[in-house]
């Protein structure tokens, strides 16, 4: 559990650093960093319990998307203002690097294995974002429609 706490704190600090580099100001950077920590916590806990990459990354990206949707509605800013920074720890940059590394080293079987793993991770992140975003759009559409009917 101590390792997970260190990883969560590291993801928060790393995301905050990215925010500084990309000139994200004020509380948005802090909120994005905190969301990154939440996402990494969900991923780490599910991975530790033995869930597959697909399930762990889908759940983490779904959690981050819910967090971003709620925060964006409260602060009246676009969802992507929080969604992109929160996803930084989950992005499979290492997988992409090692896929290319194995190709350069002429180890095609390892490259294919790592490439498929990276593709699954990327796809599960996209599925998590797409699912939650779609359902939140439907939900807010229904809420607005009911509010208009009650007027």
Automatic annotation (TrEMBL):
InterPro entries: ThrE_2, ThrE_Dicarb/AminoAcid_Exp. One of its GO terms (cellular component) is plasma membrane. Its main location: membrane. Coiled coil: none annotated. It is found in: Cell membrane. The keyword Cell inner membrane applies. Keywords: Cell inner membrane, Cell membrane, Membrane, Transmembrane, Transmembrane helix. It is a multi-pass membrane protein. Belongs to the ThrE exporter (TC 2.A.79) family. This is Threonine/Serine exporter ThrE domain-containing protein. It comes from Cetobacterium somerae ATCC BAA-474.
